TrEMBL record:
Residues 45-232 form the PCI domain. The keyword tRNA processing does not apply. Keywords: Cytoplasm, Initiation factor, Protein biosynthesis. One of its GO terms (molecular function) is RNA binding. PROSITE patterns: PCI (PS50250). It comes from the Eukaryota. This is Eukaryotic translation initiation factor 3 subunit K. Belongs to the eIF-3 subunit K family. Pfam families: CSN8_PSD8_EIF3K. GO terms for cellular component: eukaryotic 43S preinitiation complex; eukaryotic 48S preinitiation complex; eukaryotic translation initiation factor 3 complex. InterPro entries: ARM-type_fold, CSN8_PSD8_EIF3K, eIF3k, PCI_dom, Transl_init_fac_sub12_N_euk, WH-like_DNA-bd_sf, WH_DNA-bd_sf. It comes from Monascus purpureus.
Amino acid sequence: MVAFDKCETRPGHIDAILNGLDRYNPETTTVFQDYVAQQCEDRTFDCYANLALLKLYQFNPHLLQQETVTNILAKALTVFPSPAFSLCLALLPAYTQPFPSTSSTPAAPTESQHSDFVESVQKLAQLSTLLESAQYTQFWSTFNSDDLYADLVADVAGFEELVRIRIAVEVGKAFREISAEVLEQWLDLRSREALEKFVTDVCGWVVEKEKAVVRVPANKENETRSEVKSEHVGIEQFGRVIRRGFEQAA
C-alpha cells in the first residue's frame, strides 16, 4: 500500500514545498492551485498536496478560491472509496458543511451560507455519500438530474470514466457474476454494446450474451476460500487446572 503522503506523479518542486516550511507560506497557494489544475488535466490525484492547500485556506481565508476547492472535491470523488473526500471536506469552513449544526442556539443563516459555493460543496458531498454507500444507480440519477453537477466537474478530465472505473473495481471485489442489466445501471452505460466494450476493454471481464450476465474473474477479494483454524494446546498449559482437580478439600 502506498503511503498516504506519497504520490508517484508529484513534481519535485511540490515535494520540496511539502517537506519544508514553505508549506505554511501563503505565497505557495498559487503554486498549489496550479498543481490542482494540472491534476485535473492529467487525471492524477495528490491528496496530501491538496490537503496542504486547503490547510493554507484555513489559515488565510481571504486567499480561498472557490473553483479550486470544488475541483479538489470533484477529483476526490474519482478515488473513492478512499477517505480523500471526507478529509478534504473536513478542512472547509464550517458554514459549507452538509451537516446540521449541533449547537443548541444555532446562528441565523448569513448570506454566505446561501451562496453558490455552499450549494456546490453540499451537492458534491451528496454524490460522495451515494458512492460511499454503493448507491450507484442513484448516484448517476442525481448526477444527471442537474446541470450544475456537469459544471462542477467540467475541469476534471474524464470524470465519468474515472468514476466508472472505480465502481467497476468495487464490483470486482464483491461479485463473480452480475446481471448485465444491473451493471448497465451502475455504470450509467445506456446500451448493451457500450457495456460490453467497457467491461471487455477496460475491465477484462467476460459477457455471456445468452444469459445476459457479466462474469468477473476470480481475485483475492471475490474468491470463496475455506478457512480452517486449528489450535494446539499443550498439556502443560492446563497443569495448574489439573492439579487443582486432584487437590483435597481442606
